[in-house]
Design goal:
Elements (H helix, E strand, L loop, with lengths): L15 H6 L7 E5 L6 H8 L3 E5 L6 H8 L5 E5 L8 H12 L5 E4 L10 E4 L2 E3 L8 H4 L6 E4 L2 E4 L1
Parallel strand pairs: 1-2, 1-3, 3-4
Antiparallel strand pairs: 4-8, 5-6, 7-8
């Protein structure tokens, strides 16, 4: 069971992976899993003609989460989420949840100190400290096609 809520990891800025992914997705509906409490990504997406819904069980209201899950997404983004889940089974459950939508999913992670040793990074925050490539074997258990480009993991 996940011990840390990850709520304190939410920051008010457009995620770098969002800047990479969204310009290619104009006109689509995107579900941002673990998108945090701020609307920076939604505002950025709207400027590109992308409809972005944010689901975050720790940082969004129940109403917002219900609306997000009902959005019928064309694509899912999950940025800097896998790396802040301190329980391996909870992380796999989140990956399975993303895969259940059966749409392309884009993952990015903050690699922390790259030690592969999970630890508390600041009060109320935890980091897995894995390199992006270390997530590939787990993602391949849930998706038929997994590729890696830069620090972006693309799953279908």
């Amino acid at each position: 069971m996940q011990q840390m809520t990850s709520a304190a990891t939410s920051i008010n800025q457009v995620n770098p992976a969002i800047r990479t992914i969204l310009p290619q997705l104009t006109g689509l509906t995107i579900l941002d899993i673990g998108g945090g409490k701020y609307d920076s990504n939604k505002i950025y997406a709207a400027g590109l003609g992308v409809t972005l819904y944010v689901y975050d069980k720790f940082n969004r209201t129940e109403k917002e989460n219900i609306e997000a899950l009902a959005c019928n997404p064309d694509t899912i983004v999950c940025n800097n989420v896998l790396n802040v889940i301190d329980d391996g089974q909870a992380m796999r459950n989140l990956i399975a949840f993303c895969a259940s939508f059966q749409v392309p999913c884009y993952f990015s992670v903050y690699e922390g100190n790259k030690s592969a040793i999970g630890s508390i990074s600041k009060k109320g925050c935890w980091q897995r400290n894995w390199k992006s490539i270390n997530y590939l074997p787990i993602l391949k258990k849930f998706f038929n096609h997994v590729s890696y480009k830069g620090k972006l993991i693309i799953c279908q």
